[in-house]
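Cross-posting from the modeling subforum.

Setting up a comparison between two proteins and wanted a second pair of eyes on the formatting. Protein 1 (sequence, then structure tokens):
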Amino acid sequence: MARIEAPAGQQKVVIQRSGNICAYPECKAELVVNARHAGDKDKAVGKVAHICAASVGGPRFDPGMSDEERGKASNLIYLCGTHHDAIDSQLHYHTVDFLREAKEKHEMAVARGVPYSMGAVGFEELESVCNYLSINGDTDVVEEIGLDISLEEKIELNRLTDVSREMIHAGIAKVMEVRGFIRFVEETRHPGFGTKLAVKFKAEYYKALGQGLEGDEIFSYLCGVACENSGPKDSSVLRAAAVATVTYLFEICEIFEHAEHTAA
């Protein structure tokens, strides 16, 4: 029987939350091969595994879960090839509880590292994160939206939990720097840079919605998009710059919902 892959958007979420590091306890293997040429991209070498199998007969299959639940990022763990194979063959040791605990501890450790890396974010990292998304592709007009609700109100409106709230609060520390970077680029190199950046992220936001992502999943997805295109070398500081950029767009209401929708 062919292996059932998790939805691409959910895979992007778990990869982003894992910081490109194997989530297996004490492994810490980096799961990206950095590009060594400007024309190349980083290559992800990790493997996304289901904690509870996607199909009957698979490792740790749970008949009480729906197909949607099996494909959610909450049921996925990002591992190196060695541990990916190990967890699906050594089943007595690699229980559901073991894997969920390993995933939770690892993703929490990655999240806690963001505020520490945020202080090192400068124009160089912001340029790496923003340039590809803003300069490549079409540049449709973006409607400007005024910030008419507080940051906390918007977090609540979009049903974001502490997972995203802590990232946003870390990113807020660099919002002024992101704004200054965008203004500098618009004045010296690329007029309309900020508009183009917002267009790209809006497109990715709606793509995430189309894939069934919501709340925290979308925030992680957008940070993942920014990281994927951030240049020839992955690092914790670049990942922090991605969080700062997404937070900036979140704050000015260019992405995520900014007003209540009335049901028909």
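Protein 2 (same layout):
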Amino acid sequence: MNNTEQQLFLQFYNSLAPEVQRDIKHYLFVYDMYLDERDPKAQGTLLMEMHMLERKYNLEVTHGNKNNQCEGA
């Protein structure tokens, strides 16, 4: 991310409500854990937590290895 993109993102992020900022930080934290986790049960738990936040904000997200996703998606 170049300087201008980072500045625009930070400006946008700082304009969000504190609850939304906390949810974004939490989501990114859980997603990072999900990427590192090797236990399928733990991965499932982390995925459920991410799905709760995705539903809260009406998001559609595909999780998984980029190589397993359709080309052009």
